[in-house]
Amino acid sequence: MDWDEAKVSDVVNGKGGANLVEIAALLGACRVKADERTHLLGLHSETGVVGWWQQHGVCSPIELRTVVENLAVAETLTCWHTHAVPLFLQTADYMREALRASATSPADELEVRVQAGLAMQRLPRQGTTCTFFIHELALQLQVGGAEVQAGQLLHLMFMANQPNVEIRILPITRGAHAGLAGPFTLLTFPKYEPLVWVGTENSSLLIEAKASLTGYEAIVKALEEESLDARESKALLLNKFDTLGTAN
């Protein structure tokens, strides 16, 4: 390509420095397959856009490619959910029941979507620091039968003891709280600016604007103040598990 090292570095690290024709030539030199080449060339015009709203149609695709690519290089992951166990902490059985309840997810894609969800759980690197804020209501929502619920609580207790994972429960008794607007995932990176991923029924919103990120960081700080600490959260999970066993 006869490019100097600085230009190659800028292109590889997403800093621009090459026009569409040059990128097309580079992809040709690298023998990139046609589908991938079309995908990457389509992204070129979006490189200067701050934030990205991806609309998926009736429902989200089996693999959220852009989200997957960001999860794979994240340094920290901070996730909040108002009424369900976050995707990253769901067991296969819990995930399966949640998908069965969906009004838009095709029934014939159930198992492949479960496998895609489990694959997303493995994306954050071993050293990625993960913090999960979960409302207590999510622990009380009956997703599947008692066996599914027990398995999910056991899995949460197991994950809460992983060295790079912290689970914080927001008790029902707190009442109104800073996270009422809905679930989100905040990602930070070693080399790139942070972003927030908000997944909806049929779209993915990737938020990069600094003012918006400041707002989400304020929500995280409020959740830290309002939630039980890690030790108290583990105790609550154990209590929920014991209560479930007594009831059955």
The shape is: globular
Measured distance between first and last alpha carbons: 68 Å
Helices and strands, in order, run as HHHEHEHHEHHEEEEHH
Instruction: Tell me what the CATH architecture of the largest domain is.
Output: 2-Layer Sandwich
pLDDT below 50 for ≥5 consecutive residues: which ranges?
A: none
Name the assembly state. single chain
Number of strands: 7
CATH topology value of the largest domain? Endonuclease, Chain A
Helix content: 40-55%
Strand content: 15-25%
Helix count, DSSP H or I runs of 4 or more residues:
10
Average predicted confidence as pLDDT: 90
What structural class do helix, strand and pairing data support? alpha/beta
Radius of gyration: 20 Å
Any idea of the CATH class of the largest domain? Alpha Beta
**Sheet having the most strands:** 7 strands, mixed
Task: Please give the domain count.
Answer: 2
Strand order of the largest sheet: 1-7-6-5-2-3-4
For this entry, give a set of tags.
single chain, 248 residues, alpha/beta, Endonuclease, Chain A, 2 domains, seven-stranded mixed β-sheet, 7 strands
